[in-house]
Amino acid sequence: MAFTTHSSANSRKPAYVRIVRAARAAAAVLLFAVILLRPSEAAAENISITRQTATVTADGRLDISSRFHTELPDPLKQALKQGVPLYFTLNYQLSAPTMAAYKFKLGQLIGSDNSVTYKLSFHPLTNRYRITVGTFSTEYGSLETALRGIGAIANWRVLPKGTLDDTDWREIKAEVRLSLSTNQLPKPFQINALTAKNWQLDSGWKPLAVSKG
Q1: β-strands 86-96, 173-180: how paired?
Q2: Using CA atoms, how far apart are residues 185 and 191, in angstroms rounded to an integer?
Q3: Count of other CB atoms within 10 angstroms of residue 54
Q4: The predicted structure's pLDDT at residue 166
Q5: Which of the pair, 186 or 4, is modelled with greater confidence?
Q6: Taking a C-beta distance cutoff of 8 angstroms, is the pair 173, 49 a contact?
Q7: Residue 41 neighbours by CB under 8 Å, 6+ apart
Q8: DSSP per residue, 8-48
Q9: In this predicted model, what pLDDT tens digit does every residue of 109-165 receive, in sequence order?
Q10: What is the pTM of this model?
């Protein structure tokens, strides 16, 4: 049995042709990577911050006040109408001064509470929306009005006492973030959240305007 071998066409092509093709392939990979990154960027547009302030208290803590504008995509509106509650989480973080920020991150590792959870639900019997935070709940006549309450908070006192003692308030940097907690959705909806970019609602970290109380 005989085998016939053929010389490769690629070996006969000029070197610059191979270089051009390699460059095109690299550009295609880069474009694909950009497309993969775009869902998180688009998701962030669905939650925008409209109020972001923090006041340094006399006992070395922070009082945070925030408000957000949230737009739900149609699939989430439909899920809400079908009885699926939506959970949103408001987080804060301290990024400066360095030592206080380090202690804050260390506190996170041992379970310090640095978040507030908002539960948004729809009740067909009353045709009203409800926001629940802990044991406190408020009802609203429209989804638009209810969404104004998601992430809204005033004088949220955070950090242990004395954390910011002897710190110039102008050196303090802190951020807040509001996001949809997709891990609290029913399993079938969690799959949608992994594949559909309009289910990934996240404001990203937004800097607080810090002032002295």
Answers
A1: antiparallel
A2: 9
A3: 27
A4: 85
A5: 186
A6: no
A7: none
A8: -HHHHS-HHHHHHHHHHHHHHHHHHHHHHHHHHHHHHTTEE
A9: 545 578 999 999 999 999 999 999 999 999 999 999 999 999 999 999 998 898 888
A10: 0.73
Map tokens 């972001």 to a residue: 52
Query: How far are the Cα atoms of 47, 109, 129, 141 from residue 60, in angstroms, in the given order?
Result: 30, 22, 38, 40
In the block, residue with structure tokens 């004088």 = 155
53 token code pair: 């302030």
Q: Side chain identity at 163, as an amino acid letter?
A: T
- Characterise 174 by phi-psi region: left (phi > 0), alpha (psi -120 to 50), beta (else): beta
The pair of three-digit structure tokens given for residue 161, joined into one six-digit string: 């006492």
Element (H, E) at 116: strand 115-123
Quickly count helices (H) and strands (E) in the chain: 6, 10
If you search the block for the tokens 């945070």, which residue do you land on? 64
* Count of beta carbons in the 10 Å neighbourhood of residue 93: 17
Residue 183 to residue 174: CA distance in whole angstroms: 26
| CA-based nearest residue to 189, from 38, 119, 87 | 87
Could you count the other beta carbons within 10 Å of the beta carbon of residue 134? 9
